[in-house]
Fold this sequence. Notes:
Elements: H1 2-39, E1 45-47, E2 53-55, E3 60-66, E4 75-81, E5 85-92, E6 98-103, H2 106-119, E7 127-128, E8 139-145, E9 148-154, H3 160-173, E10 179-180
Parallel strand pairs: 7-9
Antiparallel strand pairs: 1-2, 3-4, 3-8, 4-5, 5-6, 6-10, 8-9
Helix pairs in contact: 2-3
Amino acid sequence: MRILLSIVILSIGLFACKSKKEVSEKEQALTEQTQEELVEKPSKEVAVESQQKIDFPENAVARIQRTACFGRCPIYTLTVYEDGTVLYQAEKWVEKEGTFQGKADPEWFKKLLAKAEEVGYFNMKNKYDSEGVTDLPSVITTLRRDDELKQIVNRYQGPEALADFEKYFDSLYLKLNWSEQDGE
Length: 184
C-alpha cells in the first residue's frame, strides 16, 4: 500500500512540474506575440516622463480607451484630433459596433483641458493598477498639452478625481452625431 501511495504521489509531482513548464512556455509565447504586435503599430511613439512610451497619432490631442473585463464592459477607443475630428472605434458592449467619425466643437477640447487642470491630471501617476486584480477593465486616457503628452492607465484604485475626468471626457464626446466609416 505504501509503495502504491508513493508511486501516485511521485506521478502527481512529475505531471505538475510538466504542466507548470507548459504554462510557462505558453505565457512566454503570448508575451513575445504581444510585444511583436506593439512594435508593429503605425503611430508615432512619443517618449514621456519616466521613459514610458506612448503610441499616439501626431495630430491627436486626446484619447480615451475602455478595455475588456470578464463581463459586459464597453470596449471602445475615442480619439480627438486637432481639427475637431473625432474617431470612435466601438468594439463590443456598446450601442453600435464599428468605426465612426464625428466633428466636435474645438471649444470642447479646451473644456477637457480645463477639467484636466482642475483635477490635477498632469500631476497624477501614470498607472493605477494591481497585478493581483485581473477582472477589471482599464480606462486609458491620453492628453496632449502644448508639447507635453500624458497617459494614465486606470484599472485599480485610481483617484476619484480621475474617474470624474474620465466620465467628463465621455460626456463631452460620446454625444456626437456619428457617421459610419466605409470599409471599417
